[in-house]
Design brief:
The complex is a heterodimer of chains A (622) and B (264). By secondary structure, chain A is α/β, with parallel strands linked by helices. In chain A, 37% of the residues lie in helices and 17% in strands. Helices cover 40% and strands 14% of the residues of chain B. The chains are: A alpha/beta (622), B alpha+beta (264). At the A-B interface, helix 3, helix 4, helix 11, helix 14 and helix 16 of A face helix 1, helix 2, helix 3 and helix 7 of B.
């Protein structure tokens, strides 16, 4: 029998797992509530989470650059970008609250780029009707995480760095009661007893070979929540960002911000043709420029001109690049050319996109003020995730909350650029407040069960104790190749089935995984621990992708190339069945509030008129 | 493609040695790629920190042939094919394992800094700040906290220095707060006493290693030192500071300078 009496235990009212934008926001919000002890666990050092990589900005209808903007238009853009599959309520909460959260960030010390009037500047981005993204050059994520970090460390939050969460503990009634974690530095285990848990654990982009995600993106939240009985929703919607670096090989997948196109960058094929004009979906034809001349006027600030087709939603642009490459019109290394050099002055480019300039200069030895970049799709974001209730962020497990990329529903079938950072702030805040409320209502600390703790620890240490076994790095590489090839950007039944079979085989290999060395700062062990979660995430993605027989947003089925309106009625849910196997089912969506439905389906002209009247009513009468 | 030689530090703070490895290097590879390759194929338990692999998170700070660098932004084609690369942990901080160091001292310094403090009044409406007034603050806020400057600073390298000086990273942070147009806190006394600005003797080593090319010395440390001198060592300013609060000081200063501008 394993003796666990010597293992350190800490008690909290609210414990947040993950310290990116969502986790920090959640911890800060919970810490503002009276008598609530808040803990924050991060897998890396504080301030290094993946949010730091976000470049373009955070979307909020502040109306600083174009006063016509309003939450209603932002909501409509979000729903249309998500192909109407978004959780209506979440999209409403997001659009309504984003401006306040962005202002709050400024009050905490974020220094955004300014308009001529000294307000927060906003830039254009794909799928957004107006310039809407509050930004700091092309390093908005860094600004956000540093601001939250420097504010958060003064809020009495107990921060546990380089600490990996292993599995959730529940009491007899099935409520969350704690979580077992491991300090990466020493390999020591720690038991956190808590009344509520917030998962702000990000996505699982490390399931693919070409990805913009860092090593942390191993679907830990999906895996742990799934094991604890929570439901995963919309897992088939994986966003491939259209512009990742493609050359040299070692940097393949690293993100090239959409801000390049927001600032006027154009996409060309190897014939020099600006091909996006050929890929404008009918639904967006009304709102998209149909000639280079009109696109140029838009860039000059002509409000009557429509947006260039390079700023269509990410799913559309990623598929277009993919098609061009397949047709033999790709760039030298199999991508498309992204050209800002001919569109903006060198000075502007360095001012607006300094980190892109630096990134290409150092990593690709290319001067983006003179030459075109080579770009191609890279796995970027999970629209799906742990299913939550819109108003509380609580999952289907009592006491377990989720926010940010870890949660599903808000972005539907495709996320608009810039809606992630604002999502982190809005739902991070909401989940923090709601988890604190939930914890306050509980009478005592829910009980953790020793047998569960022992089971979790044993399963982790068996990886080290095994005499010999499979190399975790190699299984991970196989999984990435499998997902890239079989469940990638364009999907078809036979390949997905093949992909699922391979995942089954890898699950068996994983049972015999072995990490050499001791438990102290051992990346091989860490990799092996993450593998379980990667496998669960990938299985959910593949099974959902197989079930959804249509193409919608980021989910493209070659064998079902069109949207099917019947499928609009359903989400796909994955959960652990009684036999321990994954169950994948269709779930009927709830009816939206009629008012939300009306706004989302309004024509842009009607809605702009309506908003104009709304704004006039609010204006003080002179 | 070529087979290249590496020496990597393996061990902890007390014991350790340089271990030889060989690795195939292909076009475009950076030093962090090499470490990952060795980790996957030859040494699964080789400890290293990294996150973004694009110079944005500041996790993979190491010393390459004795120079503090980001592993992810150091290309292999900088070096000759027959050159052996020596990869070691940052010298100024205790080694946890292999090339991972304990940087918690830095987090403690940050905790000591009075955070951003806007007035309650100003929070009631949108901040109005002109771009030119925040350009300098934004320069400091580019910092990715890689701690290469902290590692390179000779004051910090000398262990006693850690007790007296917060280091260049936090001088830049202090400067970003002091120069923020909406901030109302006064940190100048702390800059001198708690954070030890006087310890820096402007050798500019920090600025030279900054991967974000922040002008730490010229734009942050020297102006902070000047403010300290103004406050504590200039008899006229000392009197001025005794009479006026921070806000009044700023107002009066700008009135004085616009008055002077009429003549110069």
């Amino acid at each position: 029998m394993l003796d666990i009496s010597g293992i350190k235990r800490l008690q909290f009212d609210v414990l947040v797992i993950g310290a990116g934008g969502a986790g920090l926001s959640a911890a800060i919000a919970a810490s503002q509530e009276e008598d609530i002890r808040v803990g924050l666990v991060c897998k890396s050092l504080l301030g290094k989470a993946h949010t730091v990589m976000a470049e373009g900005g955070m979307a909020a209808a502040l109306g600083n650059v174009d006063e016509r903007d309003d939450w209603k238009i932002h909501f409509r853009d979000t729903m249309r970008g998500g192909k109407m599959l978004n959780n209506w309520k979440m999209a409403e909460i997001h659009a309504k609250n984003a401006p306040e959260r962005v202002r709050e960030l400024e009050h905490w010390g974020a220094v955004f780029d300014r308009t001529r009037d000294g307000l927060i500047n906003q830039r254009n981005f794909g799928g957004h009707r107006y310039p809407r993204l509050a930004h700091v050059g092309d390093r908005t994520g860094l600004e956000m995480i540093r601001t939250l970090q420097d504010h958060g460390i003064h809020q009495g939050i107990d921060i546990q760095m380089e600490c990996t969460a292993l599995d959730i503990l529940k009491d007899d009634e099935g409520k969350v009661s704690g979580i077992v974690c491991m300090y990466r530095e020493t390999g020591e285990f720690i038991i956190f007893e808590t009344k509520s848990l917030i998962f702000a654990t990000g996505g699982a982009g490390k399931s693919w070979e070409v990805t913009s995600n860092s090593w942390e993106y191993t679907g830990d939240g999906y895996g742990m929540a799934y094991e604890a009985g929570a439901e995963l929703i919309d897992m088939e919607f994986n966003q491939f960002h259209p512009t990742g670096m493609v050359w040299p090989p070692s940097v393949k997948g690293i993100l090239v911000t959409e801000g390049v196109r927001g600032e006027g960058g154009i996409l060309k094929n190897n014939e020099g043709k600006r091909f996006m004009f050929d890929y404008i979906p009918e639904k967006f034809a009304n709102e998209t420029a149909d000639s280079e001349e009109e696109a140029a006027r838009w860039l000059d600030g002509d409000k009557s001109a429509r947006r260039p087709p390079e700023l269509l939603t990410r799913d559309v642009v990623a598929r277009a690049i993919n098609t061009e490459v397949k047709a033999g019109r790709g760039s030298e290394h199999g991508g498309a050319y992204l050209d800002i050099a001919t569109q903006r002055s060198a000075e502007d480019i360095k001012k607006k996109l300094p980190s892109m300039y630096h990134q290409f200069k150092v990593l690709a030895e290319l001067d983006i003020t003179k030459q075109a970049m080579e770009v191609g799709p890279t796995c970027h974001y999970f629209m799906g995730g742990i299913k939550v209730e819109a108003e509380t962020s609580m999952t289907t497990v009592d006491g377990l909350f989720a926010c940010g990329e870890a949660a599903g529903g808000m972005h539907g079938a495709n996320r608009l650029g810039g809606n992630s950072l604002s999502d982190l702030l809005v739902f991070g805040n909401l989940s923090g407040v709601k988890a604190a409320e939930y914890s306050r209502k509980l009478k005592g600390m829910p009980k953790v069960k020793d047998e569960d703790i022992i089971r979790i620890i044993k399963s982790a240490t068996s990886i080290l104790n095994r005499e010999k076994g499979n190399n975790p790095y190699l299984i991970h590489e196989d999984l990435q190749k499998n997902m890239q090839y079989n469940v990638g950007i364009i999907r078809t039944k036979n390949e997905i089935v093949d992909g699922i079979e391979k995942i089954e085989r890898m699950k068996d290999e994983f049972k015999e995984v072995k990490a050499a060395g001791s438990s102290q700062f051992n990346p091989g062990w860490h990799e092996a621990l993450a593998l379980r979660n990667l496998l669960i995430s990938s299985e959910a993605v593949a099974k959902s992708a197989l079930l959804r027989e249509e193409s919608r947003g980021a989910h493209t089925r070659e064998d079902f190339p069109d949207e099917n309106k019947d499928w609009l009625e359903y989400n796909i849910i994955n959960k652990k069945g009684n036999d321990g196997k994954m169950v994948t089912v269709k779930e009927k969506r709830g009816n939206p509030e009629p008012e939300l439905k009306r706004i989302a389906n309004s024509s842009i002209e009607d809605l702009e008129n309506e908003v104009k009247k709304d704004h006039e009513k609010l204006m003080p009468k002179v | 493609m070529s087979l290249r030689n590496f020496k990597i530090y393996r061990g902890d703070d007390e014991r350790g040695e340089l271990v030889n490895y060989q690795c195939e290097v292909t076009e475009g590879m950076v030093v962090l790629d090499v470490i990952h390759r060795i980790q996957a194929d030859q040494a699964n338990d080789l400890a290293c920190r990294w996150n973004c692999k694009a110079g944005k998170c500041g996790s993979c700070s190491i010393e390459i042939n004795g120079k503090p660098r980001l592993g992810c932004m150091t290309r292999m084609n900088e070096f000759e094919e027959d050159q052996t690369l020596t990869i070691t942990p940052l010298k100024s901080f205790p080694v946890i394992k292999d090339i991972v160091t304990d940087v918690s001292w830095n987090y403690k310094q940050n905790q000591e800094i009075t955070p951003f403090t806007p007035s309650e009044e100003s929070k009631k409406k949108d901040f109005v700040m002109m771009q030119k007034d925040v350009d300098r603050v934004q320069e400091f806020r580019k910092c990715i906290e890689c701690y290469l400057c902290q590692n390179m600073c000779h004051v910090i390298r000398d262990n006693e220095g850690k007790e007296n000086f917060s280091g260049p990273r936090y001088m830049a942070r202090l400067a970003s707060l002091e120069m923020h147009p909406m901030d109302t806190a006064d940190r100048i006394e702390d800059v001198k006493d708690k954070h030890g600005s006087g310890m820096c003797n402007i050798t500019r080593c920090c600025t030279e290693v900054c991967p974000e090319e922040i002008q730490i010395t010229d734009d942050a440390i020297i102006p902070l030192k000047e403010r300290v001198v103004d406050r504590f060592y200039d008899p006229v300013m000392m009197l001025f500071n005794k009479i006026f609060s921070k806000k009044e000081r700023q107002k009066t200063k700008s009135k004085v300078s616009s008055f002077l501008r009429m003549f110069f």
